[in-house]
Amino acid sequence: MTAPKASPPAETDIEEGKAFSPRFDASGLVPVVVTSAASGEVLMLAYMNGEALARTIETGEAQFWSRSRNRLWRKGEESGNTMRVTELRTDCDQDALWLKVELGGAEACCHTGRKSCFYRALPIGEGKAAGIALTFVENERLFDPEKVYGHASAAKGNLKTQG
Amino acid sequence: MTAPKASPPAETDIEEGKAFSPRFDASGLVPVVVTSAASGEVLMLAYMNGEALARTIETGEAQFWSRSRNRLWRKGEESGNTMRVTELRTDCDQDALWLKVELGGAEACCHTGRKSCFYRALPIGEGKAAGIALTFVENERLFDPEKVYGHASAAKGNLKTQG
């Protein structure tokens, strides 16, 4: 006989309870919406594993799991563009997080030098989705990726004049 | 000899180009951050497959892929709490979308009756992540899930008095 395994929390507890029990996906990750505490705009969508989440909660500095580099990633470790967390929320079924942050450094979030990663928009209701063309709605670069990351960059956009 | 396969767009084109080429994950889905066009707050994180995305672009009404029901899901089809899209953006590497919406019906997004799915916050920098307790930062319900969905609901929170 084996001891009964602890049951996962019931749906009611997950949605209406006060116990934080984040649900990670099959890869051990949870998606995180990052918004600017100052402007409210969405800066990026990133992912955390358990360690990144624990470190973010403990230190108040945003850390993520980099899927491209397959390692823990303290935001701004290379660029200096850190993120101080002002609020962290979970959603109803606890499989997504929302982080409000204050940007450090050049106050840019995107590796292309722009403030937000969401700098291009799609037209809505104007026809079929196929072959649709994007519009640049934000094109100012707050830093030069080539200088910051030390390798050639394809980033375009208008580089902000250094004051 | 076989004809060479069309290459996927180069990184530069994906990040700096005007061609919309969304990257779906292994399940054929792309995560979508949904914010309120009126208040800017994050309402939910949902997922689209190619069909949901195409229908959203063509109709201007938000449609998603329901992972729990495994089918296309026109937001508000049951509750009447539809979402009219005012803007749709893609991020730098085109593997996430941002939808700004105007809420219809009771102007609630969450199936628990609350406006946003992100109604609970975690304390930051106050110790270890384990055993952390959530705080309800938004607890008004704009509709009664039991009445709207026609089955018993565990949703708590304060139901808004009907005017």
SSE blueprint and pairings:
Two copies of one chain form a homodimer.
Chain A: H1 11-16, E1 30-36, E2 42-48, H2 50-59, E3 63-66, E4 71-74, E5 83-90, E6 97-103, E7 120-122, E8 135-136, E9 140-141, H3 145-149, E10 158-159
Characterise this structure.
The structure is a homodimer of 163-residue chains. In chain A, the strands form four sheets. Chain A has a four-stranded mixed sheet with strand order 2-1-6-5. In chain A, strands 3-4 form a two-stranded antiparallel ribbon. In chain A, a hairpin with a 5-residue loop joins strand 1 and strand 2. The first copy, chain A, is globular and about 55 Å long. Chain A has helices at 11-16, 50-59, 145-149; strands spanning 30-36, 42-48, 63-66, 71-74, 83-90, 97-103, 120-122, 135-136, 140-141, 158-159. Chain A is an alpha/beta fold and 163 residues long. The longest helix of chain A has 10 residues, at 50-59. Helices cover 13% and strands 28% of the residues of chain A. The termini of chain A are far apart. Chain A is built from three helices and ten strands, in the order αββαβββββββαβ. The interface between A and B is large, with 60 and 61 residues. Strand 5 (83-90) of chain A pairs antiparallel with strand 7 (120-122) of chain B, so a sheet runs across the interface.
